[in-house]
Design brief:
This protein is mainly alpha-helical. It is 39% helix and 4% strand.
Length: 151
């Protein structure tokens, strides 16, 4: 065993930082007074200033309304609103349009740029092949209209 390890392990570590000790705070608030570096005219008029402030201060009353524990205690207009069918369809269509536009954008880019775009949007699409294709979302339903598939 090395002698330095024995010496270091035999004595207790003494921190280099010195602590001031337990702090004590006064129980009563301090008397209001002007700042020591304030000009003399402000110091002389400070008592008048305090009288004006104390006269204008009004005691506040506690709020009469209590906090709500459950959502149904709130007004009905604040409850969770039902989503209409038209709104759901608008969201789904805009999602599909976004994917179509992204697909056309990706086809116009070179492979390294495609990977950069995918990293930016945080997508999990597989871009290992040269051709980039977006799979159809699961919510799309095929409709036959005059021998054409419309999404």
């Amino acid at each position: 065993m090395h002698p330095s390890l024995r010496v270091l392990s035999s004595r207790a570590h003494q921190p280099l930082i010195k602590f001031l000790g337990k702090r004590t705070f006064p129980n009563t608030p301090s008397v209001p007074h002007a700042h020591p570096a304030a000009p003399a005219e402000i110091k002389s008029q400070f008592s008048q200033f305090l009288k004006k402030i104390e006269a204008s201060v009004k005691t506040s009353t506690p709020a009469s309304t209590a906090l709500l524990k459950d959502f149904w205690e709130a007004p009905e207009r604040l409850w969770k609103q039902d989503i209409e069918e038209a709104e759901i369809e608008a969201i789904m269509v805009s999602f599909w349009v976004f994917h179509r536009r992204l697909s056309s954008l990706m086809m116009s880019l070179e492979l390294p740029d495609r990977r950069r775009v995918l990293a930016l949007i945080g997508s999990t699409y597989n871009c290992s092949s040269y051709y980039y294709r977006i799979p159809k979302p699961q919510f799309c339903v095929k409709k036959r209209v005059e021998d054409q598939t419309v999404y």
